[in-house]
Each structure stands twice: as structure tokens, then as C-alpha cells.
Amino acid sequence: MKLHQCTVCGYIYYPEAGDPDNGVPPGTAFEDLPGDWVCPVCGAGKDDFKLM
Questions:
Q1: Distance between CA atoms of 49 and 24, rounded to whole angstroms?
Q2: Computed over its alpha carbons, how large is the radius of gyration of the chain?
Q3: What is the per-residue pLDDT for 18?
Q4: Three-state SS for 20?
Q5: Percent of the chain beyond pLDDT 90?
Q6: Exposed, middle or buried by CB within 10 Å (0-12, 13-18, 19+), for 2?
Q7: What's the mean per-residue pLDDT of the chain?
Q8: Each residue of 29-39: pLDDT tens digit?
Q9: CB-based burial, 4-14: b 16+ in 10 Å, e otherwise
Q10: Are 1 and 15 in contact (CB under 8 A)?
């Protein structure tokens, strides 16, 4: 799976881990995250992430 990194704070979204604290189950691809999902560290939107 592809990894995406927040360009604001450096957080890396790992699809195999998901973001369970924010309702995203493990195995969720970055592309499948809800449109209103934000970085759990700094609150940046999906548009502030880049493919690694």
C-alpha cells in the first residue's frame, strides 16, 4: 500500500494501521479516506499530504 505524508507536520498515514481513533479502520487506503478526514496530529486536510 502507498504511504502519504503530511507536508505540514510530517505525519505518515499507514493504510495497514488506519486511524482508528478517528473512525478509520485498518486497511483503509488513503484514497478511500473520507473527504473531511484531517491529519490526526496537526489537523491539515487531505490536500496537504503527498505520496511518498
A1: 17
A2: 10
A3: 98
A4: helix
A5: 98
A6: exposed
A7: 97
A8: 999 999 999 99
A9: bbbeeeebebe
A10: yes
**How many CA atoms lie within 13 Å of 50's alpha carbon, on the beta-carbon side?**
5
pLDDT bin (cut points 50, 70, 90) of residue 1 is: confident
* Distance, CA of 24 to CA of 33 (rounded, Å): 7
Q: How many CB atoms lie within 10 A of CB 51?
A: 8
Question: For the whole model, what pTM was predicted?
Answer: 0.93
Q: How far is CA 52 from CA 8, 23, 38, in A?
A: 14, 23, 18
Q: Which grid cell is 4? A: 502519504
What are the Cα distances from residue 9, in Å, to 13, 27, 39?
12, 23, 9
Q: Taking a C-beta distance cutoff of 8 angstroms, is the pair 8, 45 a contact?
A: no
